[in-house]
Write a structure and sequence with these properties.
mainly alpha
């Protein structure tokens, strides 16, 4: 029986999306800390360079998932949840942002989205 927990393609997709989100989160937000004193063109070019590696991981992740019966909607919701799971520690640890209860409430809403998108 092919359950969601034993689906190797699902876990491979999730793993690749987590890795790609690490690159993308840094590309989108890391420059705010590490390149804030540099001209915007430097930040843009650096972000594009980082995003290139994100795409090298993200595109295969979506292909693997979609080829193995993960719907486009499921891929999108997974991407959003993973994005938040990567963003929260990045925001708190690297960017030194203050966490609020809103992170928890948003996370609970995302758990609901995952439940409904994977519900038969």
């Amino acid at each position: 029986m092919n359950t969601i927990l034993s689906n190797v393609h699902l876990w491979k997709t999730i793993g690749l999306l987590v890795l790609s989100n690490c690159f993308m989160t840094y590309a989108w937000y890391g420059h705010l800390k590490s390149l804030s004193s540099k001209p915007i063109i430097i930040a843009v070019l650096a972000s594009w360079g980082i995003a290139f590696f994100e795409y090298l991981i993200q595109v295969p992740a979506n292909r693997i998932g979609h080829t193995h019966d993960i719907s486009l909607a499921q891929l999108k919701i997974m991407q959003e949840v993973i994005s938040l799971c990567v963003f929260v520690p990045f925001s708190f640890i690297y960017m030194k942002e203050r966490l609020s209860w809103n992170f928890l409430w948003a996370g609970l809403c995302m758990i609901g989205a995952v439940y409904f998108i994977f519900k038969d």
